Amino acid sequence: MNAQTAWPKGVLARYLTAGGATVDLTYRLTVHNPPQPYATLATCTGCVATNEVSQYVSRWGVEEHAPEIADAESRTWAQSHAETCRAMPKPTA
């Protein structure tokens, strides 16, 4: 039987790698009060690979907040990385 564990706080999505580790999507937050997301970050827990995508895009010289674009790009990268990463999960004590 495979028991599932709770995701770490702040994880938006999780992808299982070929080696059994995970690629976790989280938001990078500003120091404002309350903190606001400024980027979507994908981090592999088996290797050192990461991918950070800004939630702000510049269109015709105007900066727009577009978190859905950053989330979609990060999900694509995470899925691609998870399909090929053979790194094993880091052991716990």
Q: What is shown here, in short?
A:
This protein is 19% helix and 35% strand. It has one helix at residues 67-84, and strands spanning 13-16, 22-29, 37-44, 50-54, 56-59, 62-65.
Main attributes of the structure:
93 residues; alpha+beta; two-stranded antiparallel ribbon; globular
Outline the fold blueprint.
Layout: E1 13-16, E2 22-29, E3 37-44, E4 50-54, E5 56-59, E6 62-65, H1 67-84
Antiparallel strand pairs: 1-2, 2-3, 3-4, 5-6
How would you explain this protein's 3D organization?
- A four-stranded antiparallel β-sheet has the order 1-2-3-4, with helices on one face. Strands 5-6 form a two-stranded antiparallel sheet.
- The chain is 19% helix and 35% strand.
- The chain has one helix and six strands.
- It has one domain (13-84).
- The relative contact order is 0.25.
> What is the percent of helical residues?
10-25%
Strand tally is 6
Uncertain segments: none
Tertiary shape: globular
Give the percentage of residues in beta strands: 35-45%
Run of helices and strands: EEEEEEH
Radius of gyration: 15 Å
What class, by secondary structure content?
alpha+beta
